[in-house]
Write a structure and sequence with these properties.
2 copies of one chain form a homodimer.
Chain A: E1 3-7, H1 11-23, E2 27-31, H2 37-44, E3 48-52, H3 60-69, E4 75-79, H4 84-92, E5 97-100, H5 105-119, E6 126-127, E7 132-134, E8 139-142, E9 145-148, H6 151-163, H7 170-178, H8 186-202, E10 209-212, E11 216-219
Parallel strand pairs in A: 1-2, 1-3, 3-4, 4-5
Antiparallel strand pairs in A: 6-7, 7-8, 8-9, 10-11
Helix pairs in contact in A: 6-8
Chain A binds a DNA duplex (30 and 30 nucleotides) through residues 150-152, 185-188, 190-195, 197, 211, 213-214.
Chain lengths: 225, 225
DNA sequence: AGAACACTTACAGATGATGTAAGGAAAGTT
DNA sequence: AACTTTCCTTACATCATCTGTAAGTGTTCT
């Protein structure tokens, strides 16, 4: 779960925020020492910073600026002053989003979720040699074409690509598909293999999956010059 | 479609690459003047750079370094020297991926597609007030919960969120759902609306959609303090 | 009260995912 | 060569989901 740093001096407001975040399953960390926020953040490595503007000592704007210069973010600015001027100023200094207090719980969470997703590192595609595969959506890419695999096809192909160049045993695949290697439904696995092969053929990917008789399957290497 | 800059001195190889890329639907641009590659790139704004290491004049490594320093990328390095040393060197200077010549057409395309997706700007979620919506997958987020909408539900909610705070007429929604505003299937639209409302309720999002009698629908504002 | 509009629910067809079953092909064994 | 084991393919049935149709109910306006 994401870690969120809460930089807010008003203790009531801070507790309120922490409460909302923790109930939502976030790992919320309160920052109450405003002297060296940047250094604290560096070790904390939060996934998101909730930053109040009105702080004793350095203003939120300054902190925002220095956090951004260190590549720390995303930053969601909190302020009770709902003047457009401030908003522009804040965004200009690098805040990624902006929220005025008091704010609705749902609205706060929606903004946070939004920012987290926007800054979430896009998971790398799995490189299968002559194709690539999005491990989350099971979308198969070859050149500029793409195809959405069914769940079973995706699981099998992902397993093969991740284990490449080793052979993946039937019991392993069985476990991946049905969560058990005790009872191997060889037939069902076989049928799903056939389906996957047919789907691969639709993208011009012939002969990707090599059968190792008695051992299992593996992705065919494409490396030979 | 993505624009790809091909920086390669060997004319045969360059034509080959251009051919592959163009047949795949990419907008391929050949760079043959190696003096001021960075400046050319800046105006070209390619989505990806195919960069050969062995260039007359400045080495591919140097170009790679300066391109990266300008934030231009992703860069896919091409080389005929398949020594690990070079690879490490190249990646260290900022190349995002690395390919040895000669290379398989499919492998080249897979790598390109991979890089393009990795560096693709993640589309922002649509902010619906107390929820957010991924306009591509029609995934609905509220706090840390999420829900996958059906196509029709997604289209309607997206339209409402994008037009917010304006009212979206039934004929507009009809056009969005079925590509025509000539014949409004009011009943079907109504049913889909009901389904969407029920789905929203599953996430605790009550009363999001406001009916403007005789005009259409709109997202209810959440701004009142 | 009546009419127009909005909402809900139940039903059915279409589609897609997936397991079952049966038969055929290929490879290894005797 | 005949047999056995393993693998592949196809057809079918089931199940879930999506979505439009239809009918009935509720709400608002005049």
């Amino acid at each position: 779960m994401a870690r969120i740093a809460v930089v807010e001096d008003d203790s009531w407001m801070r507790e309120e925020l922490m409460d909302i975040l923790q109930k939502e399953g976030f790992e919320a960390v309160a920052i109450t020492d405003f002297h060296d926020v940047v250094a604290q953040m560096a070790t904390l490595a939060p996934n998101l910073v909730l930053l109040d503007i009105n702080l004793p000592g350095p203003s939120g704007f300054e902190i925002c600026k220095s956090l951004k210069s260190k590549g720390i973010g995303p930053i969601l600015m909190l302020t009770s002053r709902d003047k457009l001027q401030d908003e522009l100023h804040g965004l200009h200094l690098g805040a990624d989003d902006y929220l005025t207090k008091p704010c609705n719980r749902d609205r706060l969470l929606a903004r946070i979720q939004n920012l987290l997703r926007r800054f979430e590192r896009q998971p790398d595609l799995i490189d299968g040699g002559s194709f690539s595969l999005d491990p989350n959506t099971f979308t198969l890419y070859k050149g500029s074409e793409s195809l959405l695999l069914s769940a079973n096809e995706g699981k099998i192909l992902l397993a093969l690509a991740q284990h490449k160049p080793e052979v993946v045993s039937k019991s392993t695949l069985s476990e991946i598909l049905w969560g058990t290697d005790q009872y191997i439904d060889e037939n069902a696995l076989q049928v799903n293999l056939t389906r996957l092969r047919k789907t691969l053929r639709q993208l011009g990917l012939e002969d990707q999956i090599e059968t190792i008789r008695g051992k299992g399957y593996r992705l065919r290497g494409q490396e030979k010059p």
